Amino acid sequence: MTAEKPGSREPGESRTFRSALRRAGAVLLAGLAGTLAHTLLMSLKAASGLLPAFQPYAALQRVLAEALLAGAWEPAGFPLLSYALSWFNGAVVAGFVFARVYRRLPGGAGWRRGLAFGAAAWCVMGLAMFPALGLGPFGWAAGGAGAAAFSLAMLLAYGGAMGAAYGALRPDARSRRRRRDARENG
Description:
Elements: H1 11-48, H2 56-69, H3 79-101, H4 110-132, H5 144-169, H6 171-185
Helix pairs in contact: 1-3, 1-5, 2-3, 3-5, 4-5
């Protein structure tokens, strides 16, 4: 029997670690893809002048300033904080939540599961976050049906892009593709 070095791993442990790392990478890249789609829609909204009263990032900055610094901070001076929070939430927090519920979501294909996730996120955001930011349910107080429809479009774009990316990047999806390709070519 050979003595094991401290910190050495069993052969299966390094594979498990690499697999976990690949899974985490897939989640982060998928979350970034969704967040990029969401940000592009928000940028198009700003550039076109659509729904000028519907400013969820400005509302988030205001609430953060009041909650964290008792209003002593001028939120307009730090717009990057709410964007950074949004990117972190979209790429990391919501990305990992999506990965955890992925197999339970309806739709089959990754992008369809992403749309289901986006619709569920729209309900949560519309009923919890927007009212907490003073925008009313689904942003209605800041733009009526237009704000509700736009926030739905943002979250469907987010979910669809994230789902498509995650569906393609998941380690088990790659291994299924390799097996299928081997059957077709072998």
